């Protein structure tokens, strides 16, 4: 008999955690938490239905009811931010529950329970992303004399592929390879540049492992296939030989060791495995989870939502989730216990009805969803309150500048003004007021892409919003992914100064072979920007001591005023943190802090593969080599756009800053006010925009899936739907995620060209984000999401669906 029954555990949680004192779990949540360890629990959790709460409480149930030691429980999720949130809840609720149970046991004189509770260490629960946990598994599994491989980031892995594999045997310009790679991307300009070839080859190397592809069989299909297979094999062999791993190889190594009976330090004590965001699992990860359970007998819980699977481009295979029942039976020999979480506590009733309608209105998409998928129900206690159940809002303008201005005015009215009153048909009015402690951080702009300029340099919506908010209202924007790191003025100056310090006048840079001219131009632009900045004599600028120009001169001459001799080794990271003292933006701006941390991580990452550990040598025969190495391993990848900004560096953005995010960044987040860009780029019906609004052909990711389908265990499952169908599916899921983020207000924005195909217009630009269906017609409403654009409900083609809720004009 357990020391605590489930009912006793629930009572302790309710008594110890204030949020549960009045509102315990709903019946479906309770089913998920109370289910016994076996059989595996399969939780389909719609948006806002409390899956993190359920996952945290199920972990605690395993501890307090099933009496699993905390260190025998592993919980994985998709992002570091989500893992941090899950761990925070497990610890805070777990410690409080432990103390409450201990108090009750002491009062009852139950000494065995007291002793057991006192020995519990909730902190020992293993939480993290699979990759983070995999690194720990590898480290804990090291055998005597065995070297633990170093895990490298994507930009560094791609650099090693470029330098050590792509140029061998003239592969970089092999016509057979180029022809074959062209079948992976049929969009203009195809795969002809070296950069695009490198990108496809690196992505394909990951795909081989993620999908369990039989590379030998694939290689026999043609000369191009053989060359590509050789590239993948040599790339993987290079990493393994040099004790390096990218993340795909790391996961493959985990599976290999599990299959060989290793990783006993992890598998042997494991009693419970909980997997969050299972819909974004790839085949390799799925096999790791199943093998962990097979080797340990651990209880398995998976949580996810196929409608929110938006990471296909990273190898995610939503079909694994949608067909979980059969796949679990095939791998472990047991059927799961299914639970559907459908009560939404995030959003108002109108928003819930709206995204329910959006995801269910396309008939051909329904077969791609989990069988018998249930719609969400608005269950927040305020969800139907008349003053909070605001209609879906639409703001469409004839040009992007007007749209940006009106969005900023809308935000200003709410967060700096007296609020905004919305009038709808029939004379009903809704007043939008900020919370007394509210600020711009309570809102967000979500878009498929957040780059601030087009390829021709023209500003996009995020750039115009940034400019208007700052110029007119003094509000900063947080959009670290919006600009290429290489062209941000402060970054250019900082990196240019560093280059002038280690390599005055580009003497060594100019001696490096095979640097592309565009990269050289970027490096020189940085140098010019740094020199000009130094000439402005920025603070601190005490004469002859620590002025920036004097600092550069001292470095150029290797002159150390405050030291007897110039050090024989100077870490590049130390140089960076010295230079940034002249750049307050890197210290006070949220975006600046992200940029600084990105550069610092790039240097630290390069030190793992550099012969000189990202240090600048002096007084040795290797001085120039160390500088050359730094330029190639640190500055060149940034200049070529290979280093991506990781917004998770900044876990909490100040409330006074307005965030702009991709829909992928916003996964798992919620905001009181969400603005979704459903078409600010779509001024005309241009073919290059169709992949982002209304695909007419299979996209590169779906072409790649089809390329390997016959050689992968998941190929057949994917090809139940055509590549074009999958392109529509992905776009539908992406905007379902966007439209299910808001708590109170959803504002859809775009150009008027998006709504001119309504029943009164002829020339619409078909648009899935704006509710068009895959058959070329609008879903329920001829061209738009908004009821106000149709003269009467008779114009809805409901197909048994409920029309979307009323929409107010913006």
Protein described:
The chain is of the alpha/beta class and 810 residues long. The chain has 4 domains: 6-142 and 263-341, Rossmann fold (3-Layer(aba) Sandwich); 153-245, no CATH class; 392-481 and 651-809, 3-Layer(aba) Sandwich (Rossmann fold); 485-643, no CATH class. Helices cover 43% and strands 11% of the residues. The strands form 6 sheets. Strands 15-18-14-19-20-11-21 form a 7-stranded parallel β-sheet. A 6-stranded parallel β-sheet has the order 3-2-6-7-1-8, with helices on both faces. A two-stranded parallel ribbon has the order 4-5. Strand 9 (343-344), helix 18 (349-360) and strand 10 (377-378) form a beta-alpha-beta unit. Helix 5 (80-107) runs antiparallel to helix 6. The protein is globular.
Determine Rg (CA atoms, Å).
28 Å
So what's the CATH class of the largest domain?
Alpha Beta
Distance between the termini: 62 Å
Question: What is the general shape?
Answer: globular
Strand content: 5-15%
Number of domains: 4
Tally of helical runs? 30
CATH superfamily of the largest domain: P-loop containing nucleotide triphosphate hydrolases
As a percent range, the share of helical residues equals: 40-55%
What is the strand tally?
21
Structural class: alpha/beta
Task: Report low-confidence residues grouped into runs of 5 or more.
Answer: 758-765, 775-810
Instruction: Give a short account of the largest sheet.
Output: 7 strands, parallel
Order of strands in the sheet with the most strands?
A: 15-18-14-19-20-11-21
**CATH-derived topology of the largest domain:** Rossmann fold
Query: In CATH terms, what is the architecture of the largest domain?
Result: 3-Layer(aba) Sandwich
Average residue-wise pLDDT: 90
């Amino acid at each position: 008999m357990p020391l605590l029954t489930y009912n006793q555990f629930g009572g302790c949680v309710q008594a110890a955690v204030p949020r549960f004192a009045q509102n315990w779990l709903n019946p479906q949540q309770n089913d998920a938490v109370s289910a016994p360890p076996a059989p595996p629990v399969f939780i389909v959790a719609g948006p806002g239905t409390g899956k993190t709460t359920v996952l945290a409480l199920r972990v605690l149930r395993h501890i307090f009811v099933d009496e699993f030691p905390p260190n025998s429980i592993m919980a994985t999720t998709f992002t570091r931010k989500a893992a941090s949130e899950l761990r925070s809840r497990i610890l805070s609720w777990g410690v409080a529950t432990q103390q409450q149970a201990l108090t009750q046991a002491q009062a009852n004189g139950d000494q065995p329970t007291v002793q057991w509770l006192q020995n519990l260490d909730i902190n020992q629960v293993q939480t993290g992303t699979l990759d983070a946990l995999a690194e720990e598994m590898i480290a804990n599994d090291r055998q005597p004399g065995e070297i633990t491989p170093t895990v490298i980031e994507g930009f560094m892995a791609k650099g090693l592929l470029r330098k050590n594999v792509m140029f061998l045997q003239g592969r970089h310009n092999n016509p057979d390879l180029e022809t074959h790679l062209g079948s992976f991307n049929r969009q203009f300009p195809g795969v002809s540049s070296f950069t695009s070839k490198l990108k496809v080859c690196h992505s394909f190397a990951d795909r081989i492992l993620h999908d369990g592809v039989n590379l030998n069989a694939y290689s026999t299909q043609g000369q191009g296939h053989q060359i590509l297979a050789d590239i993948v094999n040599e790339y993987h062999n290079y990493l393994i030989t040099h004790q390096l791993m990218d993340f795909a190889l790391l996961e493959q190594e985990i599976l290999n060791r599990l299959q060989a009976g290793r990783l006993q330090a992890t598998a042997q004590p494991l009693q419970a495995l909980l997997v969050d965001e299972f819909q974004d699992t790839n085949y390799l990860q799925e096999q790791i989870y199943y093998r962990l359970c097979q080797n340990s007998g651990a209880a398995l819980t998976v949580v996810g939502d196929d409608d929110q699977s938006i990471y296909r481009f990273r190898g995610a295979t939503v079909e694994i989730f949608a067909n979980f029942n059969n796949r679990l039976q095939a791998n472990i020999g047991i059927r799961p216990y299914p639970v559907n979480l459908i009560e939404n506590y995030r959003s108002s009733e109108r928003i819930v009805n709206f995204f329910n309608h959006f995801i269910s209105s396309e008939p051909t998409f329904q077969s791609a969803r989990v069988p018998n998928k249930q719609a969400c129900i608005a269950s927040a206690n305020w969800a139907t309150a008349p003053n909070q159940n605001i209609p879906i809002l639409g703001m469409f303008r004839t040009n992007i500048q007007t749209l940006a201005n009106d969005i900023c005015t809308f935000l200003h009215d709410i967060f700096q003004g007296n609020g905004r009153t919305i009038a709808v048909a029939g004379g009903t009015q809704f007043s939008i007021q900020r919370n007394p402690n509210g600020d711009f951080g309570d809102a967000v702009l979500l878009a498929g892409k957040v780059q601030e300029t087009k390829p021709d340099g023209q500003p996009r919506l995020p750039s115009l919003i940034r400019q208007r908010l700052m110029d007119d209202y003094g509000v900063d924007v947080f959009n670290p992914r919006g600009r290429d790191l290489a062209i941000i003025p402060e970054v250019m100056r900082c990196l240019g100064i560093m280059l002038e310090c280690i390599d005055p006048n580009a003497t060594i840079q100019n001696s490096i072979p095979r640097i592309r001219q565009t990269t050289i131009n970027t490096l020189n632009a940085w140098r010019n920007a740094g020199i000009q900045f130094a000439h402005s004599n920025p603070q601190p600028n005490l004469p002859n001591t620590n002025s920036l120009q004097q600092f550069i001169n001292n470095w150029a001459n290797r002159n150390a005023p405050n030291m007897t001799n110039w050090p024989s080794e100077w870490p590049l990271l130390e140089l960076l943190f010295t230079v940034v003292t002249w750049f307050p933006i890197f210290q006070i701006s949220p975006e600046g802090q992200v940029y600084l941390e990105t550069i610092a991580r790039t240097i630290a990452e390069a030190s793992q593969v550099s012969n000189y550990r990202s240090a600048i040598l002096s007084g040795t025969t290797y001085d120039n080599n160390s500088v050359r190495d730094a330029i190639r391993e640190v500055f060149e990848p940034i200049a070529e756009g290979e280093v991506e900004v990781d917004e998770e560096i900044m876990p909490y953005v100040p409330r006074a800053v307005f965030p702009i995010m991709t829909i992928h960044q916003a996964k798992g987040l919620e905001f009181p006010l969400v603005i979704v860009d459903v078409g600010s780029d779509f001024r005309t019906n241009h073919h290059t925009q169709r992949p982002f609004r209304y695909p007419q052909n299979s996209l590169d990711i779906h072409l790649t899936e089809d390329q390997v389908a016959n050689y992968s265990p998941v190929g057949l499952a994917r090809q139940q739907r055509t590549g074009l169908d999958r392109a529509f599916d992905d776009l539908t899921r992406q905007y379902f995620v966007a439209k299910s983020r808001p708590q109170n207000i959803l504002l859809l924005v775009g150009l008027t060209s998006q709504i001119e195909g309504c029943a009164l217009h002829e020339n619409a630009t078909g648009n899935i984000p704006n509710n068009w269906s895959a058959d070329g017609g609008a879903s329920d409403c001829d061209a738009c999401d908004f009821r106000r654009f149709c003269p009467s409900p008779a114009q809805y083609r409901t197909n048994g669906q409920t029309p979307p809720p009323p929409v107010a004009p913006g």
